[in-house]
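Bumping with the actual sequence this time:
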Amino acid sequence: MKKILFVLTFFCTITVFGQKEDYKNLLVTADDSWRQEIISMPIGFAPQIPHKGIEEVRFAKGWSTKESDTFWTYAFLWNVEITKTLTTDQLELYMQYYFDGLMNVVNKEKDKVVPKTVALFLKKETDTDHFVGKIQLYDAFHTKNIITLYCTVSQKNCAAQKKSMILFRFSPKKFGDTTWDELNTVKLIENPCKK
């Protein structure tokens, strides 16, 4: 019953915040076991993130199962109208807005003050548009506790189209865990700027 309630709540949340069911120009590839959602940006639960576009979300099969190796393992791509590479400060702020907004919407505990998200990102020294990060957030979906997600971010700028594709990958498993092998199969299509 809890699973059914969660799924209904989640789908209602996505629908309320502007799901684009007719969006056909998918830019992320993932195997068929990864569930997909499409959300308009700016995102309803995080309007402070100012960028316009589409968010493509992919959830690992075990995303909502605490006992799964892929619990809370998912990825999303922002296909947005920006041309400059994001900074670490922007990423940290955007992830705080994103998860604070999402967890406040999902939280159903009356009078519960959802703890604030804390995010830290570093730019990879070898690549100016790749980042690694760590995010502490309140998990209003499953555990009702603070969890830590490890995160990678890569940005592909399409100057001619005046847009960027920013791919975020998340897991509570530390980098190097085999879960990341599966997570890294979620990637941008070839030549995404031509879409």
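The tokens above came from a reply further down the thread. The two ends are 41 Å apart (CA to CA).
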